[in-house]
Amino acid sequence: MTDAIAVVTDLIFSSKIVGTARALGIDAQAVTNAEALEAQLAEGGVRLVMVDMSLPGDTAVLSLRQGAAHPTTPTMLAFYSHVQNELVAEAESAGATLTMPRSKFSAELPAILKRFCSNSPDTSKPEGLC
After folding, report:
1. Distance between CA atoms of 54 and 118, rounded to whole angstroms?
2. Disulfide-capable partner of 36 in 29, 31, 93, 102 (CB 3.0 to 4.6 Å)?
């Protein structure tokens, strides 16, 4: 069962997310669109959905809305380029629980994955998440 899903089209970045999760013993998948996200959510068990706000068209907003409306209510995290601060309000209105610049997301990825997806108790909280 998948614990975390990244909605991202950048192959290198998706590999980093999935690789980091696997190194922590967390099952993660990368998908590139809202339809694939819906299919993963339907399988159940998803705790965290990470959405790249730089996805083409309305893919990011649709993905956030789908995840936020799903009965399992996974944590919805949106990340964006530091020069795209205007996307924060859009992400939040679409259902993002957390928003952060891509650089912060990347730097705190292991702690984020542990916090939201780990089966072992981890009381550490990445700065700015709570």
Report:
1. 27
2. 31
User: Residue with structure tokens 């990347």?
Assistant: 106
Residue listed under structure tokens 């997301």:
105
Pairing relationship of beta strands 28-31 and 48-52 according to DSSP bridges: unpaired
Global confidence as pTM: 0.89
Q: Look up the CATH superfamily of 4-117.
A: Response regulator (3.40.50.2300)
d(CA 73, CA 33): 19
What is the reported pLDDT for 129? 44
Question: What Cα–Cα distance (Å) separates residue 82 from each residue in 41, 45, 86, 103, 104?
Answer: 29, 31, 10, 8, 9
